[in-house]
Amino acid sequence: MAHPSQLGFQDAASPLMEELLNFHDHALMIVFLISTLVLYIIVAMVTASLTDKLVLDSQEIEIIWTILPAAILIFIALPSLRILYLMDEINDPHLTIKAMGHQWYWSYEYTDYEDLAFDSYMVPTQDLVPGQFRLLETDHRMVVPMESPIRVLVSAEDVLHSWTVPALGVKVDAIPGRLNQTTFITNRSGVFYGQCSEICGANHSFMPIVIESVPLKHFENWTSLMVEDI
């Protein structure tokens, strides 16, 4: 989860988020190099004591400032396109979960398990126990097995919402009447927090998302208990 005064991204908990962090660092270094070059040119032009007023154009400079930006865009576009294809790739998911946005809570349905569905509400501040986080904890967590491809179908019942978990590199719009999908793999066990990222009304800030990644054996025990309770 995020920490106070944090400037960077959250620690990656999925292979996709690791790729996004690498691409961010790659693009940021290019931005730093461009900024340094532009600053040097500005300083050189301002401090230069001699200018050639007879030069109206330079073919060499025209070629350089046409080819160089094109090459930079290629260096940025190629890894970006690769990540876009990785985000859309869904091959034989082990589990499919439907996430439905409501004003103002999320409901989850495990389509591979009969009658396994529940609503997930934010835990009020006065009901929090030691170790739980204000505005982030829910009464029912979305539990998934670790190291397994998970497909999430996202939609909404009333207005626009957005199902977002930064540590997993997942952000999907929840649109009424439309079914969007995303996929992720958690490479470690843990609890990962997210929030609705589309302004959806007065309680937009109070519909958090909590994903708990556990070993497969623990997940099977959890599903058995949930089905029995229902």
Automatic annotation (TrEMBL):
NCBIfam families per the record? CoxB (TIGR02866)
Q: Which reaction does it catalyse?
A: 4 Fe(II)-[cytochrome c] + O2 + 8 H(+)(in) = 4 Fe(III)-[cytochrome c] + 2 H2O + 4 H(+)(out)
Domain annotation Cytochrome oxidase subunit II transmembrane region profile: ranges? 1-91
Q: What does this protein do?
A: Component of the cytochrome c oxidase, the last enzyme in the mitochondrial electron transport chain which drives oxidative phosphorylation. The respiratory chain contains 3 multisubunit complexes succinate dehydrogenase (complex II, CII), ubiquinol-cytochrome c oxidoreductase (cytochrome b-c1 complex, complex III, CIII) and cytochrome c oxidase (complex IV, CIV), that cooperate to transfer electrons derived from NADH and succinate to molecular oxygen, creating an electrochemical gradient over the inner membrane that drives transmembrane transport and the ATP synthase.
Question: InterPro entries attached here?
Answer: CcO_II, CcO_II-like_C, CcO_II_C, Copper_CuA, Cupredoxin, Cyt_c_oxidase_su2, Cyt_c_oxidase_su2_TM_dom, Cyt_c_oxidase_su2_TM_sf
Q: Which GO terms describe its cellular component?
A: mitochondrial inner membrane
Please share the entry's free-text remark on the cofactor.
Answer: Binds a copper A center.
Needed co-factor(s): Cu cation
Its membrane topology, per UniProt? Multi-pass membrane protein
Q: Which Pfam families does its entry note?
A: COX2, COX2_TM
Using the record, list the residue span of the signal peptide; answer none if the entry has no such feature: none
Write out the similarity annotation. Belongs to the cytochrome c oxidase subunit 2 family.
Q: Would I find Transmembrane helix among this entry's keywords? A: yes
Task: Extract one GO BP annotation from the record.
Answer: ATP synthesis coupled electron transport
Keywords of this entry: Copper, Electron transport, Magnesium, Membrane, Metal-binding, Mitochondrion, Mitochondrion inner membrane, Respiratory chain, Translocase, Transmembrane, Transmembrane helix, Transport
List the protein's name: Cytochrome c oxidase subunit 2
According to the record, the segments passing through the membrane are: 27-51, 63-85
Cellular localization per UniProt = Mitochondrion inner membrane
Where would I find the Cytochrome oxidase subunit II copper A binding domain in this sequence?
92-225
A GO MF label = oxidoreductase activity
Please report the organism this UniProt entry assigns to the protein: Pseudaesopia japonica (wavyband sole)
- Quote the PANTHER family the UniProt record gives: CYTOCHROME C OXIDASE SUBUNIT 2, CYTOCHROME C OXIDASE, SUBUNIT II
